[in-house]
Amino acid sequence: MSKLITFAVPCYNSAAYMDHCVQTLLSGGEDIEIILVDDGSTKDDTPAICDRYAAEYPDIVRAVHQENGGHGEGVNQGIRNARGLYFKVVDSDDWIDVPSAKELLATIRRHLENGSPADLYICNYVYEHETQGSRVMRYRSTLPVGRIFGWSEIRSFKPWQYLLMHSLVYRTALLRECGLELPKHTFYVDNLFAYIPLPYVKTLCYLDLDLYRYYIGREDQSVNEAVMIRRIDQQLRVTRLMAQAYRGERLAAMDRKLVKYLLNYVTMMMTISSVLLTVDGSPEALEKRAALWSWLKAENPGWYSAIRYRSIATFVNLPGAFGRRLSVQNYRLARRIYKFN
After folding, report:
1. pLDDT single digits (tens) 82-95
2. Is 221 in contact with 227 (CB distance < 8 Å)?
3. Rounded CA gap, 148 and 201, in Å?
4. DSSP secondary structure of 84-112
5. What is the spatial distance between Cα 299 and Cα 308, in angstroms, rounded to a whole number?
6. pLDDT attached to residue 223
7. pLDDT of 220 above 70
8. Are strands 133-137 and 120-129 parallel, antiparallel or unpaired?
9. Rounded CA separation 67/81 (Å)
10. Distance between CA 130 and CA 17 in Å, rounded?
11. Does residue 299 carry a pLDDT above 80?
């Protein structure tokens, strides 16, 4: 019997926490496979741990060792090697809820038996913040629950409500058909994973399950504000790749609700990029901010006005020193409410 889901776990010096992740995944039993991608780890026992799991569970776990290529290349290796009908990325410091995983597997199995599997399964994810507790990201106000649907049936997403990598289980063949190849040595490529394949998705199914547990709050994490500012050039690279992916005739051929969602996602990326450059506040950073908006105006003029003047981005691009201070205050308030980094 084919594996239902491939769980790809990019691992980089993850020995301190990857056992918890893998143990939760193993609860899927013979229905799943786990690909542990050792991304050139050299500082701890990550390579040996990957090999140990592969030896102990040869019908479930495979270990792939690669030269360091970053998180995106770890995901790429997972897609290349996946044998499961569906594909999900689980970061090595995160984990899944076991009862929710079993219900997801049972649903996929039932849909396959009925001849109507979805291209994309969506579940909730939970921010497990190190110091601020848990917060669930749900979609039941936006998506039909427990049945197959198309883009025309979705409702408007809330400003904080995006389909991030943590919530997505794609059909593996779809990821290959859309030619998804994430950049090497680049952080924040999970946004590309959650964006580029969407126009290829025709059928979706949302299960109101708190499946994915997203650990957040460590000072060295990529979503920590100080870390994001240091890596702003990588954030800008991903933002540009997203903004130029779909334009003109390609957008015109899509469902209008999908187009609205894609626009809003790029708006979020532009907003985050702008506010981080504003928080930096150096002349170089402010020049990068201006260059980013000039680039968007030239590259995708159809979206420029909508993003720059008719969205949340307006409130984080206020002119002058006072405007920049107010922009940062708005960002800090949103961060306290939604705990996004």
Report:
1. 999 999 999 999 99
2. yes
3. 12
4. SSEEEE--TT-EE-HHHHHHHHHHHHHHH
5. 14
6. 58
7. no
8. antiparallel
9. 16
10. 14
11. yes
- Secondary structure class of 174 (helix, strand, coil): helix
- Token pair belonging to 259: 């187009």
Average pLDDT over residues 59-84: 98
In whole angstroms, what is the distance from residue 150 CA to residue 340 CA?
28
Q: What is the mean pLDDT of the chain?
A: 91
Query: Beta strands of 100-238 (E only): which ranges?
Result: 120-129, 133-137, 148-149, 168-171, 204-216
Instruction: Output the DSSP codes for 36-80.
Output: EEEES--SSSHHHHHHHHHHH-TTTEEEEEES--HHHHHHHHHHH
Structure tokens given for 55: 């030896």
Cα 101 off chain centre by: 18
Question: Which residue would you say has higher pLDDT here, 312 or 93?
Answer: 93
The pTM (predicted TM-score) of the whole model is: 0.92
Whether the CB-CB separation of 126 and 135 falls below 8 Å is answered with yes
Q: Give the C-alpha distances (Å, rounded to integers) separating 33 from 57, 133, 216.
A: 10, 31, 26
